[in-house]
Specification:
With 111 residues, the chain is of the alpha+beta class. It contains three helices and four strands; from the N terminus they run ββββααα. It has a two-stranded antiparallel ribbon.
């Protein structure tokens, strides 16, 4: 990290050394801070926040249906318990396969 000074670099990235293009950004985008309104407060953001967001997310102004961390849409139902959904989910995902996977995992981590 000490091979280059911050003055000599044109680009910056996250510390994990990711080679993913979306994490490599122009240093000038962060040259100053602007405060943007969010609900009842002001949030600090890079002066070129629009360029940062476009680099990270593409056209971030178009809403998309996102997924949960597990890769499937998140379902929230405040009227019913998750226990009501378990039989259907177990049938959909063939619970026997999960038993096999659990057996395999236990062997790996030596329970």
């Amino acid at each position: 990290m000490k091979s280059y000074s911050k003055e000599d670099c044109r680009f910056i990235s996250i510390i994990s050394w990711s080679e993913n293009e979306r994490y490599i950004r122009e240093k000038t985008w962060y040259r100053d801070v602007v405060f943007l309104p969010f609900e009842n407060i002001l949030i600090p953001a890079p002066v070129d926040y629009d360029l940062v967001l476009k680099k990270q997310f593409g056209d971030y102004m178009i809403p998309v249906k996102g997924q949960s961390m597990h890769g499937t849409p998140l379902v929230m139902d405040v009227e019913h318990s998750y226990l009501d959904y378990l039989p259907k989910l177990r049938k959909q995902h063939k619970r026997d396969k999960w038993k096999y996977k659990w057996k395999y995992i236990k062997e790996i981590i030596k329970f």
